Fold:
Amino acid sequence: MNRVSLIAGNWKMYKTVPEAVATAAQLKEAVKDISGREIVIAPPFISLHPVSQVIKGSNINLCSQDVFWEEEGAFTGQISPGMLLSAGCTYTLIGHSERRQYFGETNETVNKKTKKSIDQGLKVIVCIGEALEEREAGKTFSVLEIQISEGLKGLTPVHMDSVVIAYEPVWAIGTGKTATAAQAEQAHQFIRGKLKEQFDTGVAEKIRILYGGSVKPDNIDQLMAEKNIDGVLVGGASLKVDSFSRIVKFT
Ligand code: 13P
Structure:
């Protein structure tokens, strides 16, 4: 199965609006000749619309870092899938470990956000991954299994056409400790196997599984050489155009 590689940059809570606009403009120039792979950036909410104006017509896709599961209403501070679409997004991240750790995200809220976003027309990057204590206790696979079965509960194979999974071991995020390419590949194989059980072979073969956690220009080529690694979700190294564009240009 030929899966189009996807390189996504999660800017987290970095960059003011003018900084985000300037970075997007530089990135657009730096990657303008790249084709055959998908490029995604996720700036903070407030910069989504201005950045969408900068990258309009380019090969860069826009993604939010979170979403709410209602279309509209008295939900102060929340942003709906329709609002994100109107701001120029085609993707949203859901269930990032920082949302799980600091903002009460659970597999149940991941599930509600995922269903609503897809029904409203967004594509989703659902993030899963184990913490260090879980890995050390030998629970990596059972944690991933629950995150997949509960987070994607009730979705159909048609929904799954709009889903990308990001495997981000929490112990590798922002720590400089990358999972080795072999460790990541092993987790990706497990995830694909679970998706085959929960859905079918078609879904499992088509779905893209990204790796995230201290991805840098000096480890990208090795990670992308693995059979089940279909792309990466990059934090720190996505903030600078030179490092992110090198990652986009992996060989
Ligand atoms: P780092 O690349 O900074 O480790 O962050 C990974 C991440 O959380 C991307 O969503």
